C-alpha cells in the first residue's frame, strides 16, 4: 500500500495482511523525518520516503491500495498526480482520496457578506481549494468508471479544536490589509467572532469528500 497520511500510517501497517507493507510518502524530507520519528513500533511493515506525487518513482502496477489525505489541495497539477496514482496501482486496486472541500465552508456570523468575501479570499490563496469536488470529473477524464463519493461534514462548535489551523482572526486582519474588507467591517466581524467564541455560539462546518476509485482491470 502507498499512503500519504501521517496519522494513519501505523493503523494501515497493522491492517495489511501477512507479507504486505505500507510505503508512506511526502514531498517534504522534513515531514518524512517527522513521520519516522513518530512511528514507535519498528516491527511494523512500514517505510517512509520522500517523493513527488506528480512523478512517482514506482513501476506501473505496484500497489494494491493507495490512500492520500489533505494532499491534493496542495498540488500544482492534481490531474497528473491522479494519473500517477492510478498508474502505480495494480488493475483492480483501490485508491481513496480524502479532501476537505473549502468551498463548502460555512462560518456563522451576523455579517454573512463579510464572511463570504473573507472565505473567498482565503480559498484564493490555496492551490486547489475545490479539488475535493473536482476529482470526480478528473477520474472520468482518466478512464475510471468505478467511482464512489462519500461526503462527510465536519461541524466545529468549540473553536479551540481548529484554532491552530484556522487562524480566523489573523486571516480577517490579512483580508483587511488586502482591501477585501474595510477596517470597519473587519473590526465589527472580529468583535462578533470573539463574542461568539466566548458565549459558546461559534459554528463552523466544512464538507469532506472521500473519493474511492477502482482501477479498471
Ligand atoms: C496538510 S499536509 C498533509 C500531510 C499528510 N498527507 C497527512 O494527512 O498528515 C500536506 C502535505 O502535502 C505534501 N505535498 C505537497 N506537495 C506534494 C507533492 N507534490 N507530492 C507529495 N506530497 C506533497 C506536503 O509536503 C505536506 O506535508
TrEMBL record:
CDD domains: AdoMet_MTases (cd02440). It comes from the Bacteria. One of its GO terms (molecular function) is S-adenosylmethionine-dependent methyltransferase activity. Residues 16-97 form the Methyltransferase type domain. InterPro entries: Methyltransf_11, SAM-dependent_MTases_sf. This is Methyltransferase type 11 domain-containing protein. It comes from Dictyobacter kobayashii.
